[in-house]
Amino acid sequence: MSAAVAVSEKSPPKSFREVWLISLGHALTHWYPSTFYLLLPIIGKEMGLSYSQIGLIMTCQYVAGAIANVPGGILVDTVGRKGVLMAISLFWVGFPYLLMGFSHGYLMLLGCVALVGFGNSLWHPTAISTLARRFPDRKGLVLSLHGMGGNVGDALAPLAVGSLLAVLTWRQVVVLNVVPGLLVSLLLLVFLGTLRGGPKARAKAEEGKGQSLASYFRGVPELFRNRALITLTASSAFRSMTQNALLTFLPVYLAYQMGYPPFWVGAGMFALQAAGFAASPVAGYLSDRMGRRSIMMTSMAMTAVVLAFMALAGRSPAFIVFIAVLGFFLYAIRPVLQAWLLESTPKHMGGTSIGILFGAQSLGSSVAPLLGGMIADRYGLIATFWFLAFTIVVANLFIFAMPKTVEAKS
């Protein structure tokens, strides 16, 4: 009798509708910056910008993100209303690009990209902590699906916008480009923003409920004493140095050293992202079954090995093959790291934990291209790949320092 009652009371499998919708939103938060990478040379030429001024544009975006990530996490943990916050974030990422279409001054351009950095800083603490709480036993899988959304946005945006630029001006493109973001923001508001109705809806509302500021700040000291948080954040910062310096200098190497035309440079970058798209769910699923540590260490070690092979391959055709292999291992790490962090920190501080993680990643992203450029100027572009192999090895060393047993905290 008791067994029958237990079976009847067992909650049914949760629908993945929210996962797909949030992943679609994540795709668009990556779509807009990936679009901008394609527009940046055109904007720079039109405004007569120097290379340093063009570089400063991206630095402003990363610095704004680094500053805003922790406050964004605090907002997520205290306000709740995750659907509303995700809708605001997505709108906030896309709308500044619309403003750029009407800007003719450099300072206004810097202001717009800073707004993009602020908007992006709100998305990850909200979306990642929401998915982790909704699917506690499948964190690795659902966060990998969320990460796949980012890979899709990164991969498809240059192809789609490149086609539009053949018939439209860049100002027309940014106006048209804001439409998908507005539509998905409305979907997030409709399906996740307001929850009314029966017990199922009330249970969801309870999951997304915020907490008082007093309660929140009582938990802050414990959070910053958390060894796992510090270790994973440091590891992630070095991993981000690897990723973003690679995204900066891989296209330059393909164009300058290997002499590829723009189409084939774009194809190489697409291969990097497509491999990451394939790797994400595999790594997330395996980490749920085999543990986060083994997947993280294997992926980081293989990333370092592939980067070293790329440096040794130089201008040979093997270099192109290694790009796809690199994407598989480099992007496999992201959802596993996020899931491990959320299991290692208090659940009611999930937004802040992710905010700290992405703040550290933004700092790493802002300094790595500069360091990689200095190394390339002095020793040649191929030396930059050795530098990236070193940064991912450092990231892996921090994983050795992780506590052997870390349990999720309530």
Q: Examine the secondary-structure arrangement and name the CATH architecture.
A: Up-down Bundle
* DSSP E strands, number: 0
Helix-residue proportion: over 70%
Largest sheet: none
Tags for this model:
disordered N terminus, 84% helix, 410 residues, mainly alpha, Growth Hormone, Chain: A, 15 helices
Topology:
Elements lengths: L1 H8 L7 H31 L3 H29 L2 H19 L5 H29 L4 H26 L5 H24 L5 H9 L5 H12 L2 H30 L5 H29 L1 H22 L4 H27 L5 H30 L1 H20 L10
Helix pairs in contact: 2-4, 2-5, 2-6, 2-7, 3-5, 3-14, 4-5, 4-7, 5-6, 5-14, 6-11, 6-13, 10-11, 10-13, 10-14, 10-15, 11-12, 11-13, 12-13, 12-15, 14-15
Textual characterization of the structure:
The protein is mainly α. The chain has a single domain (14-400), classed as Growth Hormone, Chain: A, CATH 1.20.1250. The chain is built from 15 helices and no strands. The chain has helices at residues 2-9, 17-47, 51-79, 82-100, 106-134, 139-164, 170-193, 199-207, 213-224, 227-256, 262-290, 292-313, 318-344, 350-379, 381-400. 47% of the residues are buried. Residues 1-12 and 195-208 have low confidence and may be disordered.
